[in-house]
Structure formats: structure tokens, C-alpha cells
Amino acid sequence: MASVLDLVARIGRGTLSGVRGAGSLTLFGLNGLSHLLRPPFYWRAFFQAFAEFAFFSLPVVALTAIFSGMVIALQSYTGFSRFNAQSAIADIVVLSVVRELGPVLAGLMVAGRVGAAMAAEIGTMRVTDQIDALGTLSTNPMKYLVAPRLLAGIVALPLLVVVADILGVLGGFIVSVIKLGFSPRGYITGTLSFVQTGDVVVGLAKAAVFGFVIALMGCYNGYHSRGGAEGVGAATTSAVVAASILTLAFDYVLTELFFAR
Amino acid sequence: MTPPAAPGAVPKIRIRGLHKSFGDKRVLDGIDLDILPGTSTVIIGGSGSGKSVLLRCILGLVEPDAGTIEIDGVDVLSMNRRQAEATREQIGMLFQNAALFDSLPVWENVAFGLLAQRGTRRIGRAQARALASEVLTQVGLDPSVGDLRPAELSGGMQKRVGLARAIASRPQILFFDEPTTGLDPIMGAVIDGLIVDCVRVLGSTAIAITHDMASATRIGDEAAMLYKGRLVWQGKAASLLDSGNPMVDQFTHGRREGPIGMELRR
Question: Where in the numbering of this chain does the ABC transporter domain appear (chain B) (predicted)?
Fold first, then answer.
């Protein structure tokens, strides 16, 4: 009986802790967003975060996208050639990349790169009293550290995904034309005739949501880190893991919302 | 415990019945303290006695569970956000490890509070840079140091930059959290000297928390000792080493035997 009660108590504590964490994260996010609407806005901090998100993440996102496009073309050919449906490869590549792989892979890459760096930087500021110091210098840390990063995530990731979309399709094009013998004109025509504006727009909307989630998890975990170097390390790990899982979870939700028939 | 302020003298900072607990741990247990304008008060006490939490409560970085904190007769705990921000602009703080912003050059660290000011007090970057150079000179650093990053400075230089940042906006109140921790005795004396000079030049009211008795007697006019979240002694800083209070005597002379027992964590 005692062990059953103990189990129930543990489940209860775990549930309460989860609900408390979700509430705290939601309030943190809303607080951060509210500072985008209230001056002052720290443009220098925004541009620094934007450069970190967009410019410095470009190589890793570009390489991931181009190789993913190449792999999809190759795998699709292997499967579709059994049914004489090779002509659908261009359609499959462009839809996969624009609707899913572009936003998701860019999101996961940026979560690993920028989310981790953000959590580490803000976490270090927390454990070395730099965040408290901001408060003593007439500067709201949410306004200076969090709001510019959230906006940078929302704006930068869609731009990265535009690049990822183009390079992903290019990867499929290269494999299809050079290795599989497709005509370049036919491949491009197939791609352009199949993809719709809505596919691209929804992919970019997903990217904006992922960008927000990545920045939010980086800021939230860094902001609440405790206990020196170990705490900062734990915050960094949590930021990347949580951002990656939430990216995939939101991907499902948004796909269900926009594409499920 | 707190002797009442002299008749007619309004304390710059007046604290009454301040309580703060973290979970089961009671950190501040009914602090009453008056800090008179233009004085330097040193708060001593062992690790975990509540000194830093007291300072953070006054600064608004930690919200107390109960009690009042008045600055110039106005309760800061009942202020709205704008009023609290305006009050904080009167306060400068030197953190224990300087807490300089790694991502900014030294001059921008020093001028950070000036650049953050709004409205009619807003100044441009060129003017802020010139003011930062002036303040760096005031704390004994060459203005060329302004172009360096905090990571390129020694511990003593970081403290000086932290002091420059604290005084740059000419605050009415200055807080010093362990100003000489981690410094050699000579550098500690240099920092203390700079603190005394800055407080005198600005005419500020200062509160310093420290373990360093030499520093306490150099910086302070008044002194107080915290033990287990309570104020157990208050008097002149000059009398710290012969206060006649057994707790203060044990602490200032570093004796193992005495009323202060080593607390073991359970």
C-alpha cells in the first residue's frame, strides 16, 4: 500500500513539476514577445543575434539541404523505378524539401548550433551575475537579451529555409540530371509546375515558428541556469534537446493544421 | 538592534522587518537597519549569513517575503515598474566578480548605464565613449584600456572597470559586494582607496559587504554584523576589531572558538 501511495505521489509531483515548467516557459515566452511591442528595442542586439542565426548558420544549413535533396532523389528513384514512376521524382523532391525537410532540417541544425550557443551565453551571464548587473544599469534583461533573440529567430529561420529550399531542389536536380539521366529542362518544368505557392508559404511559416521555439528554448534554459559551469552545460543540453523535440512536435501540429485533408 | 537615526536625520535607506526564505532556509530574519546619507556602511558576516541577499533585496533583484525598504522615505517594494526603474538609476553596484559584459569592449561596459538612459538624459555613443574614458582615468586606468575586452584584463583591472561602471552615472547610492575578494593585499588596498575617493567625490551613500577586515575598516564609517539572517551588532567601523561583542570579536579575529559555531549541512 505504501509503495502504491509513493508511486502516486511521485506521479503527482512529476505532473505538477511538468505543468509548472510549461506555465513558466509560456509566461517567459509571452513576456519576451511583449517586449517587442514596448520600446526601447535593442537593434544592435537584434542584428548580432540575426547574424548568428542566419549568416553564420548558412554553411551548415546549405550543406544539409543540398545533400538531403540528393538523397531524396536517389532513394525516390530506387523506389519509383519499380513502378515506372520515375517522372515523379522532381515532384517528390520539391514537395519533401519545401514542405518538410527544408524547415525541419534547418530548424534542427540551427537548434544544435545557435540554440546551444544562446543557452551557453545567457547561462554564463546568469552564473557570473551579468544578468543582475543589467538590472542595476537601468536595462531590463528580458528586453535586452530575450526579445531581440526571439525576433531574430522568427525572421532569420524563414530566410535560411528559402536558401535550404533552393539548395535542396538543386541537390535533387544534380543527382537526377547527372546520375539518373533526366533532362534538365524536364526536371525544372516538373518542379515548377508541381510546387504551389501555399507549399512554400506554409514551409516558411513553419520555419518562423521553429525559429521562435529555438530562440525561446535557448533563452529560457540559459536564463534559468544555476550552479556554475555544470549548470550552464546542463542548460545548453536542455536547450538543444527541448528545441529539437519541440521543432518536430510543432512540425506535426502545423502539418496537421495546413496539409491534412 | 538598530539605533534610531539622529533627530532630524532622514535615513537614505531604511529597512524594517525584512524577511526572506528560500524554501525551508530562512536567510533574512527580521532585519532593521538605517543607513544615513553620505555614510559608508560595511556589513560583515560569514558565508550564508544573508549579506548578499540583503543587498539584492535593496537592489530589487530579490523580492523579500515581508518587511519594508525605504529609499529617501519612499517604500521601494510598493513602487510601480517605472518608479522602481527611476530609483534604481540612483544606485550603482560593484559586483563580487565585477560581472563585466564579456561581449562588449571595456568602454561600452563603463558607459552601459549612460547609454541605457532615455528621454532628455539620453546621450550618443561618441559622448558616452568620452565619458567612459574620463571615468576610466578616475579609477586609475588608461583610456586605451577602453578598447580591450574584459577577458583581456587582470582581476584588479576588472574590479576597477566594475567600479568605473558603478560610478559612471554618478549614483547617489553605491553598493560594493566583496570588493577585494580574489585580489592581492596591495591591489585590495588600491581598490579600497578608489572606493573611498569615489564615494567622497560623489557624496554618495555606500554599503559594502565584505569578509576582509582590513578592507572593512578602510572603507567603512559604520559597520554591522549579520549572523543567521539577523543583525547582531552595529557600531563604528573603527571599533570592529575591539567591539566587545563576542560574535564580532570571534569573526574579526578569525577564532575557531566562540559563540559562532561551524554550521554543518544536514
Answer: 13-253
